[in-house]
Input
Amino acid sequence: GESVGLHLPTLSVQEGDNSIINCAYSNSASDYFIWYKQESGKGPQFIIDIRSNMDKRQGQRVTVLLNKTVKHLSLQIAATQPGDSAVYFCAENRDNFNKFYFGSGTKLNVKP
Amino acid sequence: DTEVTQTPKHLVMGMTNKKSLKCEQHMGHRAMYWYKQKAKKPPELMFVYSYEKLSINESVPSRFSPECPNSSLLNLHLHALQPEDSALYLCASKGTDYYEQYFGPGTRLTVT
Output
C-alpha cells in the first residue's frame, strides 16, 4: 500500500505486504531527516535517518528515500507486521543543529 | 541506559494550580527538549536547553517556565494554565555529535 502524502493520514495494509509512507517538506535548507514511530501511549521512537547528501538509506526492513528535487521523503517498510502499527512522523533539521520540525504524521494500520 | 524518564505519567490540575513536570536522562546528553503534542498532531517544539542553558524558546507563553538544574534533569513549571494547554508533554534528549533524539513516554496533562 502507498500513502499519497500528508493529505491521507491513515494507511491500511495487509500483514506481510510492503508499506510506503510519504512526507513532503517545504524548506530546501533542511539538511537532515529522521523517521519516528510513535505507538499509542508512548513517545516517538527513532527508526532511521538520512542526510541531505544521500538519496537512499537502508536499515532492517526499512528504507528511507530522499528526493531533494521535489522535497519528498518516503519510508518503506518491508513485510509489514502487526507490531508496525503506529503513527509515523518525519522530522527535518534546519536552522540549528538542535532544532527539529515534525511533519503531520501518517497512521499505519496493519491488518492480520 | 538509553531511557528518558518523565514524571508524573498523568496530571490533572486546575487553572489556578502550580505544578511541575520532571524529566531525567543519564545518557550524558547535553541537549534536552520539551515538546507539546495534541491528540492526532505532531510534537511541537517548546524549549531546547543546550549545556544547561536555554537556547531555543519557540515563543511559548510565560505560564510555562522551563528549568534545567543540571545536565541530567529538566523541569517544566506550570502556572495558571488554560484548558487548551491540555496535551501530552514530551521530553527528549540528544547527544552533541548526532541528530537522534531520545524521547520519554510523556506526561498526559489535563487542565480543568
